[in-house]
Automatic annotation (TrEMBL):
Protein name per the record: SET domain-containing protein
Coiled coil regions in record: none
InterPro entries from the UniProt entry: SET_dom_sf (IPR046341), SETD3_SETD6_MTase (IPR050600)
CC per GO annotation: nucleus
The organism's taxonomic lineage, starting at the top: Eukaryota, Fungi, Dikarya, Ascomycota, Pezizomycotina
One example GO MF annotation: protein-lysine N-methyltransferase activity
Length: 470
């Protein structure tokens, strides 16, 4: 491993040292500082009484310090080692995610005392990565801790993410292991390990923010600000007229000397995503907010292979809460609940290029994008029937998830007693289970109400009568 353990290696600089790093690299602070807060780690704090009218920008970070696709491409022009691995990775190295993860690994390598000088070009980011804590994301939970997630939407999400990271790491290894310096310092003996790749992924996912004109990026200093939702959010992040990243106070917000200044990581994000990407649940979160449930097309559906092939949306649906109301959305559901006898058809057409392609049709009208299938169904006289099918399908899937969560909850309470389970994962898993159980129960009730409503439709009554269904 590049780092020798979870308590040493990469992360050695304190919040106090950040002030010196910021001053050296042109970060401007106006009535704020970065310091340690109990139970939170580093945070942005007011160093005097602040009002938005007088202290609009409390932090300005030069654009060249921002870790983004743009800055990495510029850095690669003067760092042949970075340029070499980005080129070796092909299209992945040209994505923001691929470029950022590679850049972070380069900076960690440069900072590693076991790697001689001359590998890579040191930048302000070389010290910046030393300030970043090891986030306790679920990809770092042990087997007993992951067992606590069974029945939640986070269990499948974490399994899927670990598989994705494994593929990425293997791709990265295959692309770079024959590069001489990579072979010597990354792949020889006990060099880079999968945990190193997981760590830069955790750095990126937990710190990345979307800035206008820059895109997804890691911004030193601004990314030290902790999350608070709703009215508790104290500041916004933006880019100024010079393209620099800025942290600005919200209008009509006041801070006293020593108060913590927070930003939002996304008020719309649910409990699952907060743990998945940031390793915590907001203490004020009273709802799971959103749950994504996977959905499979039945095996006995003769159109299943074609449906899976043409579907461009995720195979599932979202149950979410909005203004106290439980709702759902998911284009894939409509692909799953209509068939050939309804008017859905697939044809293999020979294109002008000579290649054969599968095309979709609804009652002989070609569907160019499957997301638009719902529009065709809404304009069909049988729309209420299609709605009923969707509701029955979704309610059944919600019931299945409820039973899985309840069964695993009982097993979790009775069987999983392990000294290897840390307090953080235990508390987060318990809270997530509680929130998702509540949302699923309310979703089931919502679908029951919708089903009752649809059964009163004259179209549905006629359809069921024709089918001799009680």
């Amino acid at each position: 491993m590049i780092r020798r353990g979870r308590s040493e290696g990469w992360f050695s600089l304190s919040c106090t040292a950040w002030q010196s790093w910021a001053s050296l690299n042109g970060v401007t602070l106006n009535g704020a500082s970065v310091d340690r807060v109990a139970h939170k780690g580093c945070a942005v704090l007011a160093t005097q009484d602040l009002r938005a009218a007088e202290h609009h920008y409390i932090m300005t970070v030069p654009r060249e310090l921002v870790v983004s696709l743009e800055s990495i491409e510029i850095q690669a022009k003067s760092d042949k080692h970075l340029a070499e691995i980005l080129a070796a990775l092909g299209s992945f190295g040209r994505t923001t995610r691929g470029a950022v993860l590679c850049s972070l690994l380069m900076q960690v390598t440069i900072a590693c005392p076991d790697v001689p000088r001359g590998v890579g070009v040191s930048t302000p980011c070389t010290d910046y990565v030393k300030f970043l804590p090891e986030e306790l994301l679920p990809t770092f939970w042990n087997d007993d801790e992951l067992e606590l997630l069974k029945g939640t939407s986070l269990h499948i999400a974490t399994q899927t993410k670990i598989k994705s990271l494994t593929r990425e790491f293997q791709q990265f290894r295959d692309a770079t292991q024959e590069i001489a310096w990579c072979k010597a310092y990354w792949w020889k003996d006990n060099g880079m390990a999968f945990d190193d790749w997981k760590q830069v992924d955790a750095m990126y996912r937990s710190r990345a923010l979307e800035f206008p004109g820059i895109g997804d990026a890691m911004v030193p200093g601004i990314d030290m600000a902790n999350h608070a939702s709703g009215d508790a959010t104290g500041a916004l992040y933006e880019t100024d007229e010079n393209g620099d990243a800025v942290l600005q106070l919200k209008d009509d917000v006041k801070f006293r000397d020593g108060d913590e200044i927070t930003i939002t990581y996304g008020d719309e994000k649910g409990a699952c995503e907060m743990i998945f990407s940031y390793g915590f649940i907001d203490d004020e979160m009273g709802s799971a907010k959103v749950i994504f449930l996977e959905l499979s097309i039945p095996e006995d559906d003769p159109l299943k292979p074609a449906k899976v092939f043409v579907a461009t949306s995720a195979p599932g649906f979202r149950v979410f809460e909005n203004a106290g109301q439980v709702l759902w959305e998911g284009d894939f559901v409509y692909i799953a609940c209509v068939n050939e006898e309804d008017g859905l058809e697939f044809k293999i057409i020979q294109a002008n290029s000579g290649e054969r392609e599968l095309q979709s049709f609804w009652k002989e009208v070609q569907i160019t994008e499957m997301e638009s299938l719902k529009t065709y169904l809404q304009n069909d006289p049988m729309w209420h029937v299609f709605q009923l099918r969707a509701i029955v399908l979704l309610q059944g899937r919600v019931k299945e998830q409820l039973e899985l969560l309840q069964q695993s909850d009982s097993r979790t309470r009775e069987e999983i007693v392990s000294e290897t389970i840390r307090d953080g994962p235990r508390r987060m898993a318990a809270r997530l289970r509680e929130l998702e159980l509540d949302l699923l129960e309310r979703a089931y009730a919502m679908f029951e109400e919708k089903k009752t409503e649809m059964l009163e439709s004259p179209v549905v009554k006629k359809y069921l009568g024709q089918e001799d269904v009680d």
